[in-house]
Amino acid sequence: MSEIMEYVKNRDPHEKEFHQAVSEVMDSVKPVLEQNPIYRRARIPERLVEPERVILFRVPWMDDQGVIQVNRGFRIQMNSAIGPYKGGLRFHPSVNLGILKFLAFEQVFKNALTTLPMGGGKGGSDFNPKGKSDMEVMRFCHSFMSELFRHIGPDTDVPAGDIGVGAREIGYLFGMYKKLRNEFAGVFTGKGLNWGGSLIRPEATGYGSVYFAAEMLATRNQTLDGKVCLVSGSGNVAQYTVEKLIQLGARPVTLSDSNGCIYDESGITAEKLAFVMNLKNVRRGRIKEYAEKYPTAVYTPIDPAADSNPLWNYKADCAFPSATQNEISGQDARNLVKNGVQLVAEGANMPTTPEGVDIFLEHKLLYGPGKAANAGGVSVSGLEMTQNSMRLAWTREEVDHRLKMIMKSIHTAASAAAERYGMPGNYVAGANIAGFVKVVDAMMDQGVV
Ligand code: NDP
Fold this sequence. Notes:
Rossmann fold; 2 domains; alpha/beta; binds NADPH dihydro-nicotinamide-adenine-dinucleotide phosphate; 5-stranded parallel beta sheet
C-alpha cells in the first residue's frame, strides 16, 4: 500500500486531502487486492487515482460596482466505469484541485454503493457566494456555465449542488446550459420542482444519513427515539438531518456555521428549525442569531486554529457531522467518546480526520462514514435522472420509500463486505470494499481504457 501512496504523493505532492481519501480506501481494500492479484496486474490502483479528465477554466464576471472579477472553475471527471460522471459542484474560497479530487474519488465508490448506474465526478470554484448579491451570483453562474456546458450532458456528466451551491445557483446554471445548448435536458439534479426536479431531493442527504443511523442502531436493538444528537453545520444537510431526527423522536441540540455553534439543551424543535431555514436560506444570516432569538440556547464562537471544536464536547448519544471535511479532530473524537456518544453518521464528506476514525473504530462506535451515510443525496439525484428519462414525477412518499430502501441496502452491502473480509461492524472497510469491487470489476470488463 505504501507503494501506491508514494506514487500518488510523488505525482501530486500538495493535494493532502486527496492523499487522505486515497489512503483510507487503499488501506481498506488491501485484503481484496491480496486475494485478487489480477487487479494489481491490471494496475487498477494506479488507474483509479488518475482522473479520466480534469477541466480547469477561467471564470470572469462583473460585480455590482462594475469591477471585473476572475475565479477558477473546475470539473473532475473521475471514473465512468459504471455510468455517466455524477457529483456536485462546490463554491467556496477553499476550493482547489486537491479538495475536488478527494471529493470526486470518494464519489466514485459512494455512487457504486447506491446500486444506481452512476460514475463519479465533482467540480466547483473558489468563488465565495457569501455576501454577494443575487445578481452577482447569477452573473458568476452564467459565466461558469458558459465554459462547463461543453463538457456535460445527461449521458455524459450530471452535476448537482454541494457547499455553496443550492437551489438558487442550480437555477442560474441550468438556465444558461439550456440557452447555450438549446435543449431542455436532465443535465442537473437538485432542479426546481416545477422544472424537472424531484421531490425529496433537498431533504435526501440529511434524511438518508438519519436512516443510515437508524439501521446501525437497529443492529444493537435500539432506535433514535429519545437520543440526544449533536449536529454540525446549518446548511442543506444539517437542516434536513435535524428535521428527520425530530420526526423520529430524537433531540437535536446543536448547529453551527464557520463562525460558531449553538447549543440548545431543550432541543431544536420544528418551530426553531423553521427559523433556522429562513435565517440560512432566505436571509442568509449567521447561526449566532439563533441564540439571540431563543434564550434557551448558548452561542460559542469557533476558533479554527484550535485543536478541538466546542460543538463536539457536549453530552450526547449520537453525532451527525454535516458541515465540511476534517471537522472532527483526534481531540474532538476523544471528547465525543468521553461524553458517551455511541454513534457517528457522517452527513458531510470526510468530516473525520484519520486519527478520529481510528478512535471511533477502536472504541467500537457505530460509525457510518460519509461514503455510506451521506449517499442518500446522490441516490435521489439518481432517482431524479430516472424520472427525467421517463418524463414523469413520483410522489413524495414513493421517493422517500425508495430512499429508505437504498439506505437499507447500502447498510446491508457495507455490513456484508466487512464481515466477508473479517472485519464485522467496520462500516469504513465494508463501504470501501463494496464500492471498490463493483467499480473495478466493471473496469476489468471494459479493458484498458
Ligand atoms: P451548505 O453550503 O448548504 O452548508 C454548509 C454548512 O457547513 C454551512 O453551515 C457552512 O457554514 C458550514 N461550513 C462550510 N465550510 C465550513 C468550514 N470550512 N468550517 C466550518 N463550517 C463550514 O452545504 P451542504 O449542507 O450541502 O454540504 C455540507 C457537507 O455535506 C459537505 O461536506 C458536502 O460535501 C456534504 N454533502 C452534501 C450533499 C448534498 O446533497 N448537499 C450530498 C453529500 C454530501 P458557513 O455558512 O459559515 O460557510
